Amino acid sequence: MKTLIDIDDYQINIRGSTGVLTVGKPGSGKSVLVSYLMLKLMSVGAYPLIFDTKRSDFYSLKDSSINSDQVCATPNQVAKTLRILTELMNRRYENHQGNWGNDWVDYNLRPIVVVFDEFSATLSEADKPTANEIISYLKQIIFKARQMGGIYLLLASQRLTADVLERNISSEFSTRIGMQNLDRISLNLAFPGCDLDEIPIVENIPGHGLIYDDHFNTMIPQPFIAPDMSEVDVPKVVKHLNQKFRQNNFSPESYWPW
């Protein structure tokens, strides 16, 4: 299966990757870019899970032939789905140990794309036990899913602080993106280990941003322009792709929860 995704002049590889961390203010083009990445992943058969506790655009995808349990609108629903996802990941490791070094692509396991829109807003809405549960499961997925999980996280947030996302977690994302001009705290967490004074200045225009990927030959994030999605009917494409892959050629998994 195709595991490379084009973003402007760059390519990111979902194989061996945790996902994409995207930070940007409202109106920066953050959600548009996440929509593009979600559709690219769904086009190769990825099963979508949507977390949108603000009940905005991504929440409306519940009407696009996506099962109701694929779209989470409350912190409790998010925590429950992350628990199920963690259990699936662990089952995949337990059931695919025969060939040293093989990963989910070699075993033809169906990838899963998790769209976590406005991560910080979800945590602020959750009570402390639920927020801790969300972070705990998220850590397990981020640290373990690269080889056998086949789980790709698209985590978006308006602003990053160490209270919202620990540096050791944010640095685990294989691809990190900042849309438009970010404050220094968000830049420092999105691009850890990078001298902020060396970071290029991008135009403060929606869709313009900075991208870093583990496969780049530099630690400095690079300017890019997100794909134009103005002519794309996202709900219509989601509906089409969801129906297309209801029957698929991925390896059967008796423990598949959905």
Automatic annotation (TrEMBL):
Principal location: membrane
Binding locations of ATP: G24, K25, P26, G27, S28, G29, K30, S31
Signal peptide: none
Pfam family membership, one: AAA
GO terms, molecular function: ATP binding; ATP hydrolysis activity; DNA binding
CC annotations in GO: membrane
Keywords linked to the UniProt accession: ATP-binding, Chromosome partition, Nucleotide-binding
Membrane topology: Multi-pass membrane protein
Subcellular location as annotated: Membrane
FtsK domain: residues covered: 7-188
InterPro entries the UniProt entry points to: AAA+_ATPase (IPR003593), ATPase_AAA_core (IPR003959), FtsK/SpoIIIE/SftA (IPR050206), FtsK_dom (IPR002543), P-loop_NTPase (IPR027417)
Coiled-coil intervals: none
GO biological process, one term: chromosome segregation
Protein name listed in UniProt: AAA family ATPase
